[in-house]
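Z., the sequence and structure:
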Amino acid sequence: MKCQSHFWVASNDPHPAKIRRQRSVGKNMFAIFFMKPGFNTIISLENGKTVTAEWCTNECLTQVPKQVEKHRRLNGLLIHHDNAPTRRTALTMEYLDTKYVKLIGHSAYSPDLSPCDFWLFPKIKEQFRGKNFQDINELDDAVRTQID
């Protein structure tokens, strides 16, 4: 028997109900790109996959210029992101060079955080606190709705 289930109860008191958590879809990662007028691209990483330089370059960064070109020319496009190793690989840097995209560097003594860490992610987490989603598609739709 589990030791957690053992507790003293007076003879005339009912036993407390055991709270059972619902199954959750799990965690899912989204790469979110935005511009001054608003959000540009939201890309979902498949469940169970890890972020690699190939995924970052071939899945994420290929979609961003297509969306930017709908609003403006690519000349002078700047990207600011955290300093994760997958975003600093030769493959990623070569791709950005071919699209004439420049990276905004981090200050020498600043923390390795992107602007989303301060205002976007806490806002989304607060809205989803305590909610369970039945499948990945429902989670994906909820994130897109929250951001739009």
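The chain has five helices and four strands. Residues 136-147 form the longest helix (12 residues).

Let me know what you think.
H.
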